[in-house]
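Input.
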Amino acid sequence: MYDVLIIGGGAAGYGCALTLASVENKFEWAKNKKYLMIDNQDSDITKASFFNLAGVDFGIGGDSLIKKMEMQLSKFKSCSKICDTVTKIEKSDDYFTISTQNTTYEAKIVVIATGMHKFDIVCDNVKVIEHTDVMKPNKVCLENNNNLISENLYVAGLASGAKTMFAIANGEGAKVACDIFKIWTGKPAVAHDNLKDKLI
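Output.
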């Protein structure tokens, strides 16, 4: 059973996974939490180069950026990543069963970060709508209220209706992780890299 399962390994998926994993050794409530990212390796990032992304090499290619994020995530023991395609999300009383092309997983919380091109995962209570804040036609997002679709089911990045910039989608993933922290701590919470003993 995973505490959080993230579907999608793009900007939002990594923003969420890295934020969650970054507190693994800092707080009692974060110890022994387990996270999983499932990615089909079809992110638009791999087709892009980045010239306005703070903190990384000017003009970095998407493949290189993905490798950097993979390396960062590998530093944390609490989060693993697998290559697979999710086909179905089913909600039970207090957890989700996530089916892929190869197997099934269980998680208490699910974050959907699948982009804007399509959404073909079978899932109750998910409404696919037109993504109206992009310049390209025929793009989709999932109806949500402040990134929440239903209890413990979140959406982040372009799939939530965010603008098509890496920094925005990445930040939304981090924001959803902080929303999850609030569930666990009962108060507003942000993961600061330079604080080892408390959240602000």
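The radius of gyration is 16 Å.
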